[in-house]
């Protein structure tokens, strides 16, 4: 038998064989790690001895029989001499047989796997080595070092033998690896050689297994990955089994700990003492089964753990969690071990799962896994307050991924609170989560029950300060003001609030804890500075996408759609609302109504009524109109009915939204202008008096100071006014709507103003106004409005771009002149209004045309003042 790269070892063996043929006794101990070729070397020794005329007796110690005395001697006795079974059953009988065989001629006694030999047989073999020193006997023994748990070995006795030879079979180096690969028919590149040597650790058996997986393929860059359960995995488990119990326990510890393994953790998890752990590490390293505290490949770890029974694996994972916890391992690592174990019972285990989920949320990492950790912690908790607290944490976390599931998670804590079983300290958390999900009536109920169940706590005159205490101070309201949670959650506030909201957005990172206040700040900007809100929605939406939180992504995309809708960008609102629905992917629950509202609004404004009709009856589980998200949706559906000539159905939707808003403390015109919506329906059905009453009510409300609401109210109020008053009201409406930046509402007001001017005999000015209105409506993509203004003109979807300088670079006099010209005033009328000469007006207009890159009066943008006032995120 040919041996590759064992020339020196074979030479030493040959010398011992020839000494035996000359009548000298010899003893050869062959040592090497599992898989390094000891058995093959022993077969080579037997073949060489047979060729030299020696009587060869071969046996291998059986690990299954290591506890039966003289088991190895029985095996040797059966094959000694004739090879037939022999009645010798004790040490004396075997010694007699061996003496007789040596008397007939030289004998080669070859014993494999001496580490598995029973104690009685090992003792007898050592005794015979001492007493038969004058006989022509060559004893060749192989063993895997560091195997025996007691550390006992034959070395001391063997060293006393005059003919003792120790042969060590070491691992292969990189050059040996390449040469063996070529010998076995697989020439490989230097890069592949390095990878194969690292994976095999120089172990010939593992190397042969790796080469067999690749077949005859060559790879100039590396080597294919070992297959789970393939030849490499099988060879690895075979070698590991032959390394001894300490090495096996240590390998299991390394496999389950993975990249978080170190010497201390692996030793603790394996349950080994210092000596046994050292033997196990040495055995693994010598066999190429580990490099320090790392296994060579994940396939090896899979093979090690796959050899265990399921119950053993679960127990090992749980022990690993305990070791990692006590050695200050990362929370997520401990939680993953507990999740793999599928069980958590101790308080520290439940707390570790919660801490890991909280830590992952703060780092925007492992969202799906964190939910699984919290579900395991909740199922393991036997203490109801703790389980309810975990449920609240799970609801807050789940909102990032699955708003519908987050909605359902709050039902159990709410039921517990009603029964008086939820601690008051957790009730505020529950109220915040309910309010954030739009369940405002239940949030009100929770705050009331919280005060009732906690008699020691003074009742707050303004529970909203507690509900959203992390919001800027500008959001506080006077203590005596009667408010409700939803009112603050969606209240647009004032311009001062907008300043504070923008500061909060600029200074606050997006985290689990800041999602709610950032969302509130964004809604505040949406009402007062939609252009700025668009920029912040884009930024926050991108952060949500990179953090793989589709729930947050849908929330920011919905706000983006609403902001674009307030600017008259129907195509943009449609795009963002569609993106929000795609992020939800059927997991929105009641929140689904939030993105559907701007989508239906945009489609209706574009005249795509058939498409909008597909979204009018969404499949939402439970009561679909129990959250604040229903308000905007009912309003959008009402406007669809109004556009499709069903004013009575529209009126019912608007009045229904108004009733809900009043019931929830959210009757705010800036948030839900249901009165003007209903007024439009009433005007269509021929009830102008009732319509005017609603408009007057809306204008009288203190909160109706917003320019957008005021502009729409004035436009509708003009419908029932006498001609001259109508023109005045519509002019005021145009001014208000131009300031707010809503191009679509501005187009409607300009269209009505053009119509009123036409009826008053001011045809020239009416024509200019109508062209402005039509261009704005075309820019917004509002095809039905374009058809109403100028039926014969085909809309052009793209707006004319501004010149390089832009409207922001107009001087104040130029902007005033251009603004009046865009409204349809003649040069003479502009000169009279500004107390300048006509030539001055013409001079300013010439400079405006040049700066804006236009050539005629009709191309003047109608939103000059809005462009100049646009902001950007800090």
How would you sum up this structure, described in words?
- The chain is mainly α and 874 residues long.
- Among the domains are: 7-170, Rossmann fold (3-Layer(aba) Sandwich), CATH 3.40.50; 175-224, no CATH class; 706-799, Serine Threonine Protein Phosphatase 5, Tetratricopeptide repeat (Alpha Horseshoe), CATH 1.25.40; 805-874, Winged helix-like DNA-binding domain superfamily/Winged helix DNA-binding domain (Arc Repressor Mutant, subunit A), CATH 1.10.10.10.
- It has 45 helices and 5 strands.
- It has a 5-stranded parallel β-sheet with strand order 2-3-4-1-5, with helices on both faces.
- Strand 3, helix 5 (119-131) and strand 4 form a beta-alpha-beta unit.
- It is elongated.
- The model is unreliable at 216-221, 455-482, 797-808 and 866-874 (pLDDT under 50).
Q: Architecture of the domain at 7-170 in CATH?
A: 3-Layer(aba) Sandwich
Taking all Cα atoms into account, the compactness measure Rg is: 43 Å
CATH topology of the domain at 7-170: Rossmann fold
Unreliable sequence segments: 216-221, 455-482, 797-808, 866-874
Q: Major sheet, described briefly?
A: 5 strands, parallel
Q: Label the structural class.
A: mainly alpha
Count every beta strand, where a strand is a DSSP E run of 2 or more residues: 5
Helix content: 55-70%
Q: Helices, strands, pairings?
A:
Blueprint: H1 7-21, E1 26-32, H2 38-51, E2 55-60, H3 71-79, H4 91-104, E3 107-112, H5 119-131, E4 137-143, H6 155-159, E5 164-169, H7 174-183, H8 190-200, H9 204-214, H10 231-241, H11 245-257, H12 263-270, H13 274-286, H14 298-306, H15 310-326, H16 331-341, H17 347-363, H18 367-380, H19 384-398, H20 403-409, H21 411-418, H22 424-436, H23 440-453, H24 463-467, H25 485-490, H26 495-507, H27 515-528, H28 530-546, H29 550-566, H30 570-584, H31 593-606, H32 609-613, H33 629-643, H34 647-663, H35 674-684, H36 688-700, H37 707-717, H38 723-740, H39 743-759, H40 763-780, H41 783-789, H42 812-822, H43 827-834, H44 838-852, H45 864-869
Parallel strand pairs: 1-4, 1-5, 2-3, 3-4
Helix pairs in contact: 1-2, 3-4, 7-8, 8-9, 9-10, 10-14, 11-12, 11-13, 11-14, 15-16, 16-17, 16-18, 17-18, 18-19, 19-20, 19-22, 22-23, 26-27, 27-28, 27-29, 28-29, 29-30, 29-31, 30-31, 31-33, 33-34, 33-35, 34-35, 35-36, 36-37, 37-38, 37-39, 38-39, 39-40, 40-41, 42-44, 43-44
